[in-house]
Amino acid sequence: MRVVRRLAALLGAAAMLTVVPGNAHAASPTFADATTIGTHNAYEKDKYTYFAQALDSGASLLELDVYTDSISKRWRVSHSNPFGDDNNCEAAKSPSELYSKNRNQDLGSCLDNIAAWHQLHPDHRPIVFKVEMKNGFNNNRGLGPDEFDALVQQKLGSIVYKPSDLLGSSYSTLDAAARANAWPSRDSLKGKVVFELIPGTVEMNNPFDHYWTDREYGDHLRDLYAAGNISKAQAFPAVLGAASGDPRTSRYDASIRPWFVFFDGDAATYVNNGYDTSWYDTGHYILIMTDAAGVAPAISSTDPTDAEVAARLSLLAHDHASVITSDWAAKSASVLSSAADRG
After folding, report:
1. Alpha carbon 325 to chain centroid, angstroms
2. N or C: at which end does the chain have fewer Cβ atoms within 10 angstroms?
3. pTM of this structure
4. Above 80 in pLDDT, residue 11?
5. What is the distance in angstroms between the CA of the first residue and the CA of the last residue of the chain?
6. Where is the signal peptide (predicted)?
7. What's the pLDDT tens digit per position in 63-106?
8. Contact status, residue 254 vs residue 303, Cβ threshold 8 Å
């Protein structure tokens, strides 16, 4: 049955770049009701000359890799250098400075670029910024969850859609709010940004580090809520890695499980293993499927045809993804801004 559905998606959806929502959801779908496209490692200069161009791309998710540089006490943005910056973020704080300033800046400048770009496009689509904390937080050196929140709040202020916004006044955990589909409509999220945090490859391979970004920020959310300070939190931690069923039960203690409503894993692992991903859709959780090009039949991970992107979007929307990601920076904004009805 899965093969039949996959062929139908490939053949029937190939000509569609924007899929009109069907009857499964309300006329104005919530943030959890749609499937969109994101760009892996959008901060890299071989993808976009400037990070502002990544923002121009139409993609609904852009990824940043961040190192906590404990020596200089800075948030470095780089793929592999923990002590330097290697990225397309500029030393630009105003719209007039975008597309022209020196690159290879730290996370604060990346956030400055977002703020400046937002001034030019105040009604932009909601954008998820996926932040991989490569070597994790370093709270002992002043680079912990509190400092991350403070930096994001300082640079972006009210344009951030925060955990407290999902909770509102009706829910005491993010899980309860998500299951009630308390997410706002995508239309009402115009001009907003959302931060997702995942643990990084360096911390996960560090035999002396067993307290990764996901747990640390989960504890952070729980403690902020208990202290009446949940409005300070700026990000949603994600459960990393494709799994069958609810992966929270085996990874986290009961006190922080309800603070995870983002899930992030390899698309082929979800699809090819036949995992029941409808669970994520039923719970209105945000499911990010990475390496979308690798799902059979594989397509180019850098520059597939428009029809192949449309078919892949349709296929993984049926598999209940919220966002599919790949290295498709070469595609046009009309392609990367495509959306499908989830489920």
Report:
1. 9
2. N
3. 0.93
4. no
5. 15
6. 1-26
7. 999 999 999 999 999 999 999 999 999 999 999 999 999 999 99
8. no
